[in-house]
Structures are given as C-alpha cells and as structure tokens.
Amino acid sequence: MLLRHTPKEISERKALTINPAKTCQPVGAMYAALGIHRCLPHSHGSQGCCAYHRSALTRHYAEPIMASTSSFTEGASVFGGQSNMLESIQNIFALYDPDIIAVNTTCLSEVIGDDLKQIINRAMGDNKIPPGKTVMYASTPSFKGSHVTGYANMLSAIVQNFAVATGTRNDAITILPSFIEPSDMSEIKHIAEEMGIKYIMYPDTSDVVNAPMDGKFHMYPKGGTTKELIRQSGDSRRAIALGRVGVFPAAQLLDTKCKVKTDILDLPIGITATDTFVDTLRKIAGVTVPESINDERGRLVDVLCDKAQYVYGKKVSLMGDPDTLFGLAQFCKDAGMQVLHVVTGTPAGAKWDRRVKELLGDGTIVKSGAQADLFYLHQLMQNDKPDLLFGNTYCKYIARDMDIPLIRTAFPIYDRMGHSYFPITGYRGGLHLLIKVLDAFMDRQDRDAPEEKFELVM
Amino acid sequence: MVEVLAARKQQVLEKGKDVFNIECEKPSTAGSVSQRACVFCGSRVVLYPIADAVHLIHGPIGCAAYTWELRGSLSSGPELHRLSFSTDIREHEVIYGGEKKLYAALKELIGAYKPNAAFVYCTCIIGLIGDDVEAVCAKVEKEVGIPVIPVHSEGFKGTKKDGYKAACEAAFKLVGKDDITPVSKTSINILGEFNLAGETWIIKDYYKRMGVEVTACITGDGRVAEIGRAHRAKLNVVQCSGSMTYLAKMMEEKYGIPYIRVSYFGIEDMSKALYDVAEYFKDETILHNTQELVKSEVNALLPKLTEYRKDLEGKKAGVYVGGSFKAFSMVKALRHLGMETVVVGSQTGSPEDYEYLKEITNEGTIILDDTNPLELSGFILEKGADLLIGGVKERPIAYKMGIGFCDHNHERKEALAGYEGMLNFAREVHTSVTSPVWKYSPARIKAAEAAQAAEAAQAAEAAQAAEAAQAAEAAQAAEAARAGKEILV
Asked: Where a domain ends, among A161, A194, A223?
C-alpha cells in the first residue's frame, strides 16, 4: 500500500512538504491567459517550466495546450534573459501570429531580475511588436503563492493592460471569475444570459480548453474573451468578482484604475452562493429573475429534498483551491453535511481561514499554506474518518487507503473526464454536483449492503 | 507547405530532397512552442524508479508537483519513489539561502521514512542562490549513515540530456558500495530500462530463461543495494542509450565492465538484444537457450501480428519521441505491421542518430529535431499520416486532427518492450487507427466525400469516354457500311 508510511500521530514539520496540495504560479497564469482570444501564453525561463505547465494542463483538459518559452540556457541565467525575450517576441509573431503574448515569469527569471517592462518597451521601440498586437506580462515567481496566485496575477495584468475608462459608461456588467473550469465559465454566462444581462466576462476558457473536435489542429481555438471586450470592461457600469483569492487583485485594480465599482462575491457553488450571485445581478441590472432560473433552482432544491437523507449528517473532507473550497464548504453546509477538514496548499491568508471557520464552526480543521499538504490531510483523516473526500486526482491514494469515495473537483484531474464539460457552479452545476455526491454514497451503500438489505428502491 | 522558423531550417530534413546534415543537440529557438523539458526533468526521470530511496526536490513547489508520479515506473516492493517530497522554497530562502531548510527537511524525511538512500535534486533556483548542497548532504550522510546524494540538475544548465548525465553521476555514487554479495559469472546489468508498465519484469524473465543473471536494473524497479553491487557484473546492457551510456562509460573506466547498446522494442531489436548478450558470454547453454527462446516467442507472435496487419497494411505513421533509439525501433516495428513511417523525429537525437534514421526510412520521409506542434501537425497533414506516436503533449493534437495515437512516453499503461510488448503495441496501434470514432471526424468525412466525388467524377469521365468511344465506333461502322455500300453499289 502506497501510503502505509503515513503515521496517525501528527508531529510538527517545519521544512518538509510531503505530497503538495498546490502547484506553482505560472501554470495558473497560463490558464488565465488561455481565456483571452488569440492569446499565446509565454513562459520566460528555462524550457522545463513551460513543458511541465503545458503537460499539466494537457493532462487535465485532454486538449492541446499551446505556450512558448524563452528557452533559457546557462548564458541567459548569467547575463539576463533580455535577448532571449526579444528573440522570442520576434519569432512568435513571425510564426504563430497571436494577437497577444502573455508572458509569465518563472522563479529563474525573477531571481536574476529580468525587467520585463523594460524589455517589452525596448521591443516596442525596436518595432518588434506588430501594430495592433500586444505583449504583456505578469510577475509569477514560483517561490511565492501557488497556481491560484498566478491566476490572480495574470488576471490583474490583463486588467492593467487592456481595461480602459473612456469616461463614458456602457451598460455591461463585468464578471471576473476565479480559477474555475471552462464548464463553470459557461454556466456563469448562461445565468447572465438567461437573466437578459449584458455582460463582459474574462477570462473565459470555454471553447478554448474544451473545444470540439473538428478535424483540425487550431493554434487558437474559437473561444476566449476578445481584447476589445476587455477594453470596454473599463467602462462597464459595475463589476462582480466571483471568488476572492483568485480575483481580488484584478477586482481592486479595475476599481481603482477605471473606477468600476466591484462587488466581491464567493464562487456561486451550491444554493446559497448562487442565490447571492443571482440576486446581485438582479439588483445591479434592475431585472426580475426569470422563471427559467427559478426553475433551475427549484430542481436543485427538489432533488435535495428527495434524497436529503442520503447526504444529511455525512462527514466530508475538502482539499483544493481556496475559492472553490469556500463554495464547496457552503454547498456541503446547504446539504446538511458535516465538513471535518479543509486543506489548501495555497497561502490563502488568515482572513480566508477565518471566513471558512466562521462558516463551518469550530469543529472544522482549516489549514492553508505551508505544510498544508496531502500528507497532513491524510493524517487528519486517519484521526477523524470522513465518509467522503473532495479533492484532486492525487487524493485518490488517500481515498483508496481510507476506503472512501472521492469526488474530483480540484486541479489537477488526470484520471477522469467531465470537469471540463459539466459545471459545479450555478443551480445546474449544483444539481450535477449533488448527483455526483448522491451516486457516490448510494453506490457505496449498495456495495456494502448485506444481501437482505440490498434494495431496489432507494 | 509547412512553415519552419528560419533558425530551425537546418533541423528539418526531407529524405531524398535535402542533402544537409541535420542540426541537433542545440538549445531550442527562443519563442518556439518546444516539446522539450529541462535538466531537472532528465535527472528525475532516470533516478525516479529507485524505489527504496527518497527523492527530495530542493526548490519551489512546482518542480516537485509536476514530477510527482510522472512516470509509471512500477516497483515490486517499496514505493517511496511515488511520494512527492519538497523543501518548497519560498521568498525567505531565496534571499537568505535554503541550506537550513534543506538540512531540516532531510532530517525529517529520513527520520520518518527510513529509506536506504536519499537523492537531493537541485533546481534552477538553488543553482542561482548558490546553496552548498554538497556540504549539507555530506553532513546529513554522516549523521544518518545512508548515502545522501546531491543531483546537480539545475534546469537551465542545458537540455534534458545534461540531466541524464547528472543522474548517471548520482547513480554512480551508489555503485561499488557492496563487495560481499555473490554475483554469478554470467551476470549483466540492465541500464536505461525504467519498468514502465512492468517492462523490466518482461526483460528480466527473458534473461532468466537464457541462464543470465541480472545483477542490477538501473533504474527500473531499482534498489539501492542492487546498484551497490552492480560493479561486479560482467556486462552492461544499455537500453535507453541517450540516458545511460554515460554511466556505462564510467563503469567501464573504473571497473572495466564493457557495455553494449540494445533496444527492447520490436522483433529484430529485441532478438538482437538477447543474442548480443548470449554471444558475449560464449556459453553453449546460454546460446542454445536464447535460440529456443527467440524461436518460440517469434513463432507465437507472428501469426497474431498477421491479424492486425490485415487492417493496417499501407497505413502511414508519424513518430515523435524523446530518445532517437526508440524512434529507430518504432520505424522497424511499424514495418512489421505493414505501416510506413512518413514523419519521424526526436527531442534529443545526435547527428549519428539522424543519419541512421535517414538510412532506415523511405524517400520523402520528414526527419525532425526538437519540433513544435505547428510544424508537427503540418507535416502530419502534408504526409497524410493515419497515426502519431508521441508523448503526453502530442496526444490531443493527433486526436483533434482525427488520427490515431499511440503513447510511447512515460505515461503509457501497456508494456511495449519485448515480444509481448510488440503484441501490445500492435493491438494499441490497431485499436487507435481502426477506431470507428474517426469516421465522425469532419476532416475524414470531407476527405471521404472528396474521394467519393473524385471516384464519381472518374466514373463519369470513364462513362463519357466509353460513350464517345462507342459513338466513334458506331460512326466508323456506319462509315464502313456506307463505304461498303458504295462499293456494293
């Protein structure tokens, strides 16, 4: 058994991380950049980083993930990566012709101190950036934050580079979602559309990393928010940030840079958080909630009524990214489940820890940041065994060891399909998630039932 | 025509058309969507299968996260290699140095897991901030009494190949530690076989049947103690030559063990690998056993392959893999299935490798060094391949284009080595290429429609021609009749 070494006794670790519950900034930045139309993510550092990030996203989405690299060598590491970056800009526009190059930095380029702003200005001065094209960057050193922080930093850089306030407001509402699946991006758009609201949402990775098969390889799939729309978001009447850790810097920037007043909400996962989202949209736009949305909500509540006894009082552990975790915690609470543990490797901050505790009560152990890893989670679970675990693919080892079901909801998911196509946000996403949970519990009940208690109707 | 960056022109060659020597072993062009990885990756993939050692990654979390469980190297015993250990270097250590954290992490780790050795991988950032990893490792080694070996795998120091070298140097430090355990006179080490999907077990079984003892497999299903006595084996058999020839050379120099290069993929290469070992020992029994083994395996395999060949005959393949030795075997193995390789390339080939690829492929074959997706997909399309063999990043590209795919990288679930591996390979290629899903691919539908239209046009043309011929004949007959009549009259 792979995890036979994990001792039950929890001892304090200071320096060692075992089985991390996070990964590094650039992969999140790369994902955010993919949500912009005709944008090529570029990794400023050695080749390995770019290859790893592309592999991780390729495995998670089973889609071709494109990103270029500055291909650092020892020389670049000593003398700086400027010439590599300038050469990259020239080669990328010549060969791949994107509208935008979104550069993320690596720990290497950060430590040698490459000044990307200066390099990009120089490229502009040397006429290496064709008219109408943009090269932008986000600082994403791997020794700070996590993939969620990287996503937040790139989103904020997107606001910085493209959102412009012209002084004339338009009637659109800007929506900034946290690090979520393309299916969730679609679901959020669906709600806004159903309510008849004019919106601008970015990033939007739907139709990029869940693109249909059409017999061709596309360097730039049809999805992604256009540069023009992002520009207009600077004039939008209002903005809504969905999630906090992954969106806050961008939301704040849109507010200060373009004076767009921003409501910061939690990701609409489950009934409560979706209600808040829908209600906020309703108030801002001055619309009434259409019957279709009420019906979606009604279906979710109906199914929860029908089968509440199968989830009520069940104990769960949650692992994943902070914004999604908060939503899942709320979802579990809505369904009457008891959350034992909430663990994220992302240093989400004391405020996040506090909010989760406030939501779930003191009975829940919450840990984020250093040494909040899967080894620790496994130890916690050995001491207080849950009935279900939410987490990424790596959690499968723990689920197997504990002999409990695992619902895959975090990044990365390498061993199941569905996350790119079926949402967990909104009422429809909530229904999908609830059914996954019900299936897990009812399958388990069937499997474990003695012959005389094995029933047809459940 | 496929567009190739000016700086890459010398890395792409069409056999029969271009005459230059392919340029390789150079860093990727800045700005390209390269499929290559880094020095650290090279070290990690080579040392990873040593299952009773802990592998501590000294660096920021990403390096550890992305290489956690990255290859399916199976172990028949301990599984320490499958856990992910990291010092998770933060800003604080970048400024003040990470030596203290490394020391503490090593002590915690070794205390908790009681491994037989520890490898400490240096990542980019460690090279830059200048931690004295050697000193920390030496100190911990002295304190805990197991080998604690630094791996100098700073990502920027070169290519994946340089990482192999760093791994060989690290593994070499384990060699020679055990001088007591008896080793047979006809014993070998297997180098560069990583037990993906249990391949080491297949190969070891062949050698066992031949009467040859395997002292150590470096590193598939590897153990610290086995590597410790590897210096007393009589021959090193190097399978993945790109990664392990360097270790073989070091062992030859220090311990006088000769080495041979082999490949375990495909019928010819697998058989040759066994015969080469048998001939080296000049032992009648071993030679006889080998002949029997090869005869029985090949006889059992060939009829099964014929079944797959029926459907695959005439299909075309593209091959883009990490090491070029693998590419050689793929070209040959595909030929057994009746398939022609029309595009072939590797991430790390040497000039000799590409020369050899030129030799074994047909005219018109595209040979690539360190390609990118745009180029690769372009050539695949241009050459009309029905299958792509590659790694994780190539799979969705093939599928999007509506062609089959076979994984020949560390994620594959099927053993492809040996005779049973060849059968698995044939089955996988067959499943992928003949899958009914491709008939729903718009590109295929369009191509089929075009083919149908062309056929119809051809038929119409033929009918028209036939009609015209008939008319001409009739006219001729009429003419003749008239002429005859005239004569008659």
From this structure: A161
